Structure formats: C-alpha cells, structure tokens
C-alpha cells in the first residue's frame, strides 16, 4: 500500500529533480565533488566554517558573511526548513554554502520551504555531499582559503585558477556595500517599553536582532549609513551611538574610524563585532587577521571584571591586538578562552565600550544580555 502525506509527496518531488554536479575548489588545488542543491552557477569567496548545530537561516542572512562561502560542520542541515521570521537582514548574504547533507523535505511547524528552494530563489550556489570534516580540518591547519563553488551540468573549467585569482578579504571595504543608502528610523515589532532614549546606529551590516533588543528597551533608533560623519550623527542629537557588526577588513573602513575618533567622549558609544574593531582602531589599537576566524555559537569568553564565563556567538575573521590596546591605555574587558584573543574593550573616561562577539544572538541564552543594559545605563547617566 503506497504511503500518503506531505513528506511522501515531497520525497517524490525531490526524486524527480535533476541532480546538478557540484564542486568546491580551494586555492591550494584541492577539489571536492558533490551535488548542487541551491542555484546553478559559480561563486567565489573566502571559504570558512561555522560550528553551530542550528541557526543556519540566521547564518545565511547575516551581512557579516558577505563574500564568504560558509561550510557547516554539523552534518545534517535544513531539517527544519526556512521561514520568513528567522532572518537577520533583508536577503541571503553568503557567497555560497557547503553542507555534508542537505535535507530536501523539512519537517517543522514553522517551515515554509526547503533550504534548497530558499537558496535557489535567492540565487545562491550551494553544494552538498562533500566531506565537510576534511574541509574544516584543512582550514584549521592552513587557515581560511580563497575558493570557488560550482553547481551545474557542464564541465566547470579551471576552478582552482579562478580561486587563486580572487583578491581575498584583506583590504576589502564591504561595509558600504551592505549598509543602508540613507538614514531611517527603525520600525520593527511594536515595542512594549516607552521610548526613553534616542540611539543613532551605524549600519555596517547590521543584524535585525540588535535593533529589536534596543527598541524593546525603550530606544528610538535612527539607522545611518556606514559612511556618515560625526557631524551628521551629532545632528540627530542622540543620547547614545551604536556601531553594528559587518563584513570585510576594518582597516579599510577608514571613514568610520575617523568618525568614531571625533565622537568618542561626546556621547556613550557601544560597538559589536566590526563596530568593536572600528572602536579599537579609533582608540589607537591595531588589527590582525585570524588564521581561520571564530564562527559558531559555542565560543567561551571570560569577563575579566567579574570572572564569569559567557557562551557566545561569533562571526569574525579579524581581531584587535590586545597589546596595542595596552600601549594606548585602553582596557581589555573580555578574553576568548580558546585562543586568548581580545573579545571586549572599554574606555570609561570617554564612555565607550565594545565586544567582538554577538550578544544579540543569545546562545547562552542570556549570558551577554547585560551589555545592552550597560549601554542603557550609560545613557541614563550621561
């Protein structure tokens, strides 16, 4: 007796689809062959890995992943599908996606479509059926690599040469590419708290949940483009200034560094990820590129003030050198317990602080919520 029901229908539909050839080519000459399950085509970017077991839709829509091809270390991806709610920006941001096994028939009450359909509609090349453990191990040993994804029916040609020809992430200013075009007031879900503060938020590739949290704490938020000047920000008469996450090399975002130099000490300032790196550079620190970066939702960070250990969500390939901070009198507040790199800084005199990780992602789930409270408290006493 044949089976009936939604899952069986999906299985039949998937079985009828034509399987595309899929390739992952790395700059060192390594080629992994699998199957394409997103859009057909070719994409170049920096190949990195993410250790999260869930949250793939948030990863895909995080602007910090611009120009990056993300490899998921967890073997089964897509089993709960995708929906219109679990997004962090207005579109899929990754350059490509690599998984061991892509679930073609998701099962979850929130699911609206499969991961493959979602990526195909967004025009994102994705490859499944490759050894993601081997790719991850290679990246851990040699560092993040330039690579090319191909999905299609024809011979892809010399993908390795195309990977090697790409310039890479160092020196790339991607903040302007993902930022808003003009200032606007955030109109998210209706806030339960009355508006008490006005925050001007630099959009370097902002995630929606940062805005949701601040709005829920009584903040009116004016979002401004990445290249906004200090004078333009101060013209909004804010109570506080927020610097968002974003992609690319912080050394290339010179205009934002100059703006923060002029804003430091005038208003309370809070930065996350790329915002943290920009603050570090503005206060006199130096940045360096991590070997393979920190990406996932299980990174332990120690708060040096309290001794508490936070389980954090991270996504960055560059870092501020803690020795350079000490030379310019800036205090490191948090340290990564895996590699002892800087995860937070503060200059109390100039009322400015930041963290490298993502407190809005809440993997702890509430280990890092105090940071937004700290920002609000600084505005209360400004």
Keywords:
single chain, 382 residues, alpha/beta, Glucose Oxidase, domain 1, Rossmann fold, 2 domains, ten-stranded mixed β-sheet, seven-stranded mixed beta barrel, 12 helices, 19 strands, globular, disordered N terminus
Structural notes for this entry:
- This protein is of the alpha/beta class and 382 residues long.
- Helices cover 25% and strands 30% of the residues.
- It contains twelve helices and 19 strands.
- The longest helix is centred in the first third of the chain and has 11 residues, at 6-16.
- The termini are far apart.
- Residues 1-5 have low confidence and may be disordered.
What is the CATH superfamily classification of the largest domain? Class I glutamine amidotransferase (GATase) domain
Low-confidence stretches: 1-5
What's the arrangement of strands in the largest beta sheet? Answer: 10-12-11-13-14-19-18-17-15-16
Provide mean pLDDT, rounded: 93
Number of strands: 19
Q: What oligomeric state is this?
A: single chain
Q: How far apart, in Å, are the first and last alpha carbons?
A: 73 Å
Specify the number of helices.
12
Helix/strand-derived category reads alpha/beta
> What is the helical fraction, as a range of percent?
25-40%
CATH architecture of the largest domain: 3-Layer(aba) Sandwich
Based on Cα principal axes, name the global outline. Answer: globular
Give the radius of gyration: 21 Å
Major sheet attributes: 10 strands, mixed
The overall number of domains is 2
State the CATH class of the largest domain.
Alpha Beta
